[in-house]
Amino acid sequence: MKYLHEKHFTIEEAKSLVEQIKPLVARMIELKRILDLKGYDIYQHRYFTGSPNGEKNYPPEVEELVGLIEEIENMGVLVKGIEQGLIDFPHIRQNGQEVYLCWMYGESSINYWHTISGGFMGRKPIEEI
Questions:
Q1: CA pair distance 46, 38, nearest whole angstrom
Q2: H or E element in which residue 63 lies
Q3: Rounded Cα–Cα distance for residues 83 and 72 (Å)
Q4: Which of 27, 35, 36, 48 could form a disulfide with 40 if both were Cys (CB 3.0 to 4.6 A apart)?
């Protein structure tokens, strides 16, 4: 069967990795807040006002943010929401279906999963996997 992702996590592996990436995700959220305060739109890659306010074309926090996202994604984990710290771990269910184990910063552990097309709004309790 062909899957969207090469790397897949067991529930135990994903739960273990959450502890490792929590500080990275916390910093990612903090950097996004700093960039918002500076008036920088990370999605449009420009200042909201169009003017860099004495900075380079982009603030130095952008490089750090990009580096954090790359570090997380190089582990095989997907960053789905920078502001919320929303993270997905590719997983294969017993029936062979590829899904995501879903974790959001502030949650104690991985408590939810969803189909690839279902997204955050389709989250179901991990016990139903």
A1: 11
A2: helix 60-73
A3: 15
A4: 35
Segment 38-61 shows an average pLDDT of 71
CA–CA dist 113, 101 (Å, integer) = 4
Q: Tokens 């529930």, residue?
A: 11
List of residues 6+ apart from 22 with CB closer than 8 A: 105
What distance, in Å, lies between the first and last C-alpha atoms of the chain?
19
Strands 46-47 and 78-81: unpaired
Dihedral Cα 58, 21, 76, 71, nearest 10 deg: 30
Report the DSSP beta bridge partners of residue 78: 88
pLDDT at 52 over 60: no
Residue 54 pLDDT greater than 60, yes or no: no
